């Protein structure tokens, strides 16, 4: 199969560079170009590197960053992966879709649009087909978003619980990593040895995005899920990896063992279709008393392309009718670029591209 | 007034050294000796210093640590402040009480004893008198505990809400500081850039201690409060200062402004009695979007003796019938040594000593 | 004595707020106003707080920040303490001096001017009088700088060694705190778990400023000291406190004990004159194997006004003809605002104001 | 070729687990067993995991840790890779060599032995053959050490400079990572936001090991190199990656460009022999103003097996006759387990095994 040409938008940022990481030697996709704003004109990826733990190939590091150019991208690429900051992404993504490009974006601009899905292949793979109702779809253009990083990390566990036991209430507190704020993001004097109990708009996003994702798409319309979500979001001095505490009221009262069993048995579409970036085990249950931890579990998912693509849960406890769980996911891989790459892999397998 | 002679137990630890900090030049108390285990024999405070931000007087730093000796302490001291680790404190504290010493302890050993109060002067000052029912009280000995550090930081706000609006459910997640684990405590390879979602026994302690403290003492018996608590406890890479997210169901549905008003108007016994370590404002409400933060609010309380003795709350939000609040307190001052010093000041003013 | 009215310039920054800390209840000075750029108009100190460890008085926190106004300052204040960023400070400070204000500044703009001293009262108190040769001195205006934070921390130890044993070569590596970069300064993604081996212009500044400070002022001219300095500067994830390693070639070969003795015996002008912010012991020698450390020694100096004003040295070793020493100082107190306050105290005592 | 069976000693520690990482799927070696002390009996690698950034294969994680057993190892393994703590390693390693096992060790116990080489294949590959003079060599047993982590990171750059320009004096200050102290190592209360200017014995080790490594082996005897080294060692809150500042006096005065050129042209034995773990470019020169940094350069070396095996240098400056350079290497890969694996690869290629 000839590889599909893709553009990376926002290539100077944390998410853009995670896109590049996930697309080096990808079996379906080939990077046509790295795009960013005019500020980075003339620089190479090497000059603007922000990802700490991945070692890019020399030729990738030497790639020049190009200034964003919708017509060039539309001409050369079937797909654009967008890591553009949310406050800027909207119009560019719309324009690309209008020009026939399939946009897989991490930006929040279009997430709550009436005809745009927030897609997580393990959670709501059928939402994929909502793109057929987008006006631009007839000429090949569309927009598919992934959820914000704090919602992604818990969407699959919540979906499994809902499907198995019912789900009524979720009280959530987050311990979110610094990379979620992008670069330069949080000043070090506010981050070192500190916790910031505020991330603008994040709590509202979690509450609305989870409801949309875990809802249904029927007759050209998204119906929001009915369970209630109460989120408290905070930033902690961790580089990568969002940890979240969940206190949940389910529709029934299973034992802790039944919950573990439901998580461990779960396989989603990416696993069934064997998508290249799919983690073999999408939800990993740790049995130790003190896990999951960002330091040790952030890269859970596999040794290759699916590194960092699993969600890890642990400390599953029951008190009265409530269940307490900690969940962790890599916010710029699973909860960022990796989510969109998996979405694109699903779209290819399902014949949308 | 002649100052009351006091012993500091566990003087080589974080809590012990906070006791020393709070008792330098204290108007009621005079340190008779610094005591610890045999391992520190012959060392001075200077040799075992662990508190980062306080500058002790030269003469205090030069004080020799003595090996714990109950009979010496009982002979010379009316009071012992105990910062002994909880797993070792129990028998020594009992023996001291039997020998006529008033023990104010930060250790957990006796907290759930049937005749021992968990005292926070702003929350349950009347529990003080439960000590009269302790067997050793007739010869002057007794034990008064302060709550564990994560309970202390939220007890006063919860008590104010209960008294003003009623309190039914509290969903709590903690962001607890490293100093709460003592020294050497958490290995740095587990702490730097990480969150550990487990603190042994902490969630159970929060749930039971809050119920005892916010309950009543009547006819020689503690009646536990009835509201329900669901705690998730985690350790973050912060040196001092426990932050906690609260999602609360109250007995009625006040506005956010009414809650702020209740917090700001609140004065407890320490404020009314003008105790030396009492913060003028026991609960400080921050109005900024992103507070309280350990870095900026941990020392809230006053410029002198009451530094670090206030609780700071912020981000008070209402969603449906639930209220979301972040609360912060200094875990080794307000939530540790400072709590016991305030308890002792109350006992003096109330004539128990 | 009536207190001297002073203005604080750059009151929204780290250094500006350390000035405020050091001038609350100062026996010589009274803050007339807090000044900053137009961006902070209408805000109070409380709104822009950046210092973590100091608890300001309520009335100070409530003080409104005013927009910088040279004529107002010149009319109302005898002195201006400047924490303006170095790239902006120059013209404003010049204008203030021309209008008869005595400027004590932490900014680097004027440090290498031919008629402006870099003053450290323990090191070169006689340089104070060089201001008499400034053109503006006749109408009361002048500029006195303190050294940059990395030079200040080692100037006194180097001066003592030079005076006692001679000084030929200094190989220096720095471990500098984040607060030295101001706010917002270093992005947290570059700071957490990292070291940045570059601080723009810092190595050159250290090399030239030390030579000027340790040189002489004679016949209206600064003669630079002749010893050679080779500096390597790096930023580490510490909030406050610059640590530096020194490998020194002296003019003779004293024993380590003789060096300790020289440091411990040393008293400078601030000690002899008993200046309010003078640490009783300007150079503290730690004998432990693993000190000085920012966490434990950054506030060395005293329990009151001189907290953080001493330099701490330790690990003094000799290998062949070289001496190895670690030195630490608080970069925004001793190495920042505190340095200028001490300079102003000296100027008052010496009758220049 | 049949793979050579190897034992991993100290498999519960940081270095032991880096050995495992480097030996998964190794083309020459096959892990026969993971060994540690009795404390870990019955545990699997999964239970004692300490490496943060590497994702082991499931089957490796499930491997049981065995209690150290010299006779079993001697029977089954040709090679033992030792990550035993230095204070315990000596006798076990000797016993293994006496039983015919080739020991490649990261422990310091035997480094200064008269007949044991400290081997870095890029620096002193000929020292390999010194093992032929070890008493145990006749029956196949021998001991080869790698240098301590802080020496390894600068040995190759120093060797290149010596060979090209001569080398006379090296003034070194280190910024060493927490993982260098092993686990549990440094308490977090001493690490977070702090620098510890002391690592027991480290400065002496650097000074003696560099002299031995950069010396010659002739007529059964190591002759130490003559250049002088002055080291200051400090621990910084970084997880992995030792940064070091070097101020060097060479035998001549090349331009900075000539030095860069010498580094970039350098290839050692591992590169010429194309050893599996050899980084293509053993010394990488960064041209940016602010590199190398642990966060961004610690994994330099390649995308596969040689990840983290290069040394990165940068900020090469000349002042008068001295050269200033910052160097960085991964202390538990290049400076730990990776060094010994590379040594073993060299021994295989050179026919010693």
Describe this protein with a few key phrases.
homotetramer, 353 residues, Rossmann fold, Dihydrodipicolinate Reductase, domain 2, 11 helices
What does this structure look like?
The structure is a homotetramer of 353-residue chains. By secondary structure, chain A is of the alpha/beta class. Chain A folds into 2 domains: 4-148 and 337-349, NAD(P)-binding Rossmann-like Domain (Rossmann fold); 150-330, Dihydrodipicolinate Reductase, domain 2, CATH 3.30.360. Chain A contains 11 helices and 14 strands. In chain A, helix 5 packs across helix 7 and helix 5 (149-165) packs across helix 11. The longest helix of chain A is centred in the middle third of the chain and has 17 residues, at 149-165. Chain A starts with a strand and ends with a helix. Chains in contact: A-B, A-C, A-D, B-C, B-D, C-D. The A-B interface holds A 171, 173, 175, 189-190, 193-198, 200, 203, 207, 228, 230, 232, 234, 236-239, 243, 245, 247, 289-295, 314-315, 317, 319-320, 322, 324, 326 and B 171, 173, 175, 189-190, 193-198, 200, 203, 207, 228, 230, 232, 234, 236-239, 243, 245, 247, 289-295, 314-315, 317, 319-320, 322, 324, 326.
Give a quick rundown of the structure:
Chain A is of the alpha/beta class and 353 residues long. Helix content of chain A is 29%, strand content 22%.
Count of strand segments of chain A: 14
Fraction of residues in helix of chain A: 25-40%
Given as residue ranges, the uncertain stretches of chain A (5+ residues, pLDDT < 50) are none
Largest sheet of chain A: 6 strands, parallel
Outline of chain A: globular
Largest interface: A-B, 40 and 40 residues
**The CATH fourth-level homologous superfamily of the largest domain in chain A:** Dihydrodipicolinate Reductase, domain 2
Indicate the CATH architecture of the largest domain in chain A: 2-Layer Sandwich
- Write the element-wise H/E pattern of chain A from the N-terminal end onward: EHEHEHEHEEHEHHEEEEHHEHEEH
By CATH, the topology of the largest domain in chain A is Dihydrodipicolinate Reductase, domain 2
**How many distinct helices of chain A?**
11
Average pLDDT level of chain A:
97
Structural class of chain A: alpha/beta
Oligomer: homotetramer
Count of folded domains of chain A:
2
Strand line-up of the largest beta sheet of chain A = 3-2-1-4-5-6
| N-to-C span of chain A | 13 Å
Rg estimate of chain A, integer Å: 19 Å
CATH classification class of the largest domain in chain A: Alpha Beta
Strand content of chain A: 15-25%
